[in-house]
Amino acid sequence: MLKPRSTPTREQVNLDGLWRFALDGAARPEPWKGPLDTRLEAAVPASYNDLFTDPAIRDHVGWVWYQRTARVPRGWTDERVLLRVDAATHEGRVYVDGVLVAEHVGGYTPFEADITGHVRAGDEFRLTIGVNNELSNVTIPPGTVTVARSGRREQQYKHDFYNYAGLARSIWLHSVPPVHVTDVTITTGLDGTTGTVGYSVETNSSAPVRVRALDADGAEVAAAAGATGALRIDGATPWRPGAGYLYELVIEVLDEDGGGVLDVYREPFGVRTVEVRGTEFLINGEPFYFTGFGKHEDAPVRGKGHDNAHLVHDFQLLEWIGANSFRTSHYPYAEEVLEFADRHGIVVIDETAAVGLNLAVQGGLTGRPHDPTWAPENFGAATRDAHARHLRELIARDKNHPSVVMWCLANESSSAEEGAREYFEPLVELTRELDPTRPITHTAWLGATGDNDLIADLFDVVTVNRYYGWYIANGDLEAAEQYLEHDLRGWVEKFGKPVMMGEYGADTLPGLHSVWDVPWTEEYQRAYFEMNHRVFDRFEAFVGEHVWNFADFATSNGIHRVDGNKKGVFTRDRRPKSAAHALRARWTGLNGRKPR
Ligand code: GCB
């Protein structure tokens, strides 16, 4: 889905700010039918949970309502008027003056509605957005709503991060001309020093299309006519990790005689290649070693709300510590994040919101038999359909970002359990069909090993999440080292593919110190990383290390977490723990190359 952009033929109005807000039930029965009866105002973009002091709001399960008025610019008389919601977590319904204009399930991908028939240029309208945070067996991510003995509805889910909800990303009113570009796909290659750029433009008409590629200074470097085709850029500057050089494709839809321009859309792109060859991960033909993190969109007060100040600061810290990459664990991040990564040359593993498709985890923790994960009553065809829809939306949104070098289809699903292959094979096929250019991976949980995993061969890169020295052999780094080496060897020897660490980490309380190997201390986190790195460096096939986590983050209540997950290398307010300095020393020395 195209991002709204301002061009000579397109305009946009940002609708962020303070919106009237109410829980379902607190307002009138059909809140979209009139002004929302409430004194509350919520900030957009932000998760609503931590904005208010009322626990009934924080713990609410179900619909909430946001409302504001908006004015259609008076110059839009002859334009199509669209309303775009960058994210409504996890389900959204949009009403214009009481009329339902859009519905969408999936909390981390955008959706939009053509509201031309419902509004008039120059006039104001009432915009109401309902957002529901409920998860089920057929949502991605999954969850279950239970009713406690107290009668309170509670949302259970199988991931540890807090189920923040609301309008955490921007809302846009934007215009497109009646004849317009609806999609563009750009793929790039390198032929010596020449950049090859394949493009395919979709429009809502058969009007002729022409494209021009501009370099970063705005100079035209290639041009072509036709909705699909190829451009060649001689002496191209490639997009590289650490140097995010971007070109722009200017797409013009012309009137039938080719004289007038009906629509202009501009899409940035980078010229680069990505390939897995043997046990190497190659960017522009050169071996790349991932250093970085699994992250979260997470901050005090805003929750998962996008914030440009946090964006800039997080990327500063990534650079400071020598991270060249991150994974969008465990859901697609705001588009602004990917655009920033594009511009700054940070490599991204783009992950779906499929986290928690694993009932074996509970079994593993309690030792009790667990319900089958891949069963129709748990995660069956209907879940897979939702997963497929989500993949389509993710790839449609992010396919043109040069920073995205790999798709991660799921986090820690039950890949060693019967039925995993039947579940994943069609999703792998779909991903390859939607994007034949990027490698794919999924992260393997502790219960899946080289011996018992049923799906690793379907993917290009083996990514494993391992917590030896934390959940296993806690406090015994010697034993942990042996377990880890044995475990990694199993994957390396069996699959002959690049292997990387998707997660490794230890909860750490800043300020807690010890001269011994005491879990939760800053020294232990450092020693834990050192042990992991010693092991990684023994494997030729190892292509990267993503620490869990970049920063401490909010989790749901529970006995396993005290004030959130503390595996951050930075605290939640982004102060470095001692291990951050150790990582910095290692990573700045590597500079994207494998340790020797
Ligand atoms: C994992 C999950 C991640 C958790 C982490 C932990 O394996 O993928 O979402 O936060 O472990 O800290 O337990």
TrEMBL record:
EC category name: hydrolase
One family name in Pfam for this protein: Glyco_hydro_2
Domain Glycoside hydrolase family 2 catalytic, residue spans: 274-590
Alphabetized Gene3D superfamilies for the sequence: Galactose-binding domain-like (2.60.120.260), Glycosidases (3.20.20.80), Immunoglobulins (2.60.40.10)
PROSITE patterns registered for this protein in UniProt: GLYCOSYL_HYDROL_F2_1
The Glycosyl hydrolases family 2 sugar binding domain, residue ranges: 14-177
Enzyme Commission number: 3.2.1.31
GO molecular function: beta-glucuronidase activity
Residue ranges of every copy of the Glycoside hydrolase family 2 immunoglobulin-like beta-sandwich domain listed in the record: 179-272
Keywords tagged on the record: Glycosidase, Hydrolase
Recorded superkingdom: Bacteria
Stored SUPFAM superfamilies: (Trans)glycosidases, beta-Galactosidase/glucuronidase domain, Galactose-binding domain-like
Family: Belongs to the glycosyl hydrolase 2 family.
Protein name: Beta-glucuronidase
Organism: Actinomadura sediminis
Organism lineage: Bacteria, Bacillati, Actinomycetota, Actinomycetes, Streptosporangiales
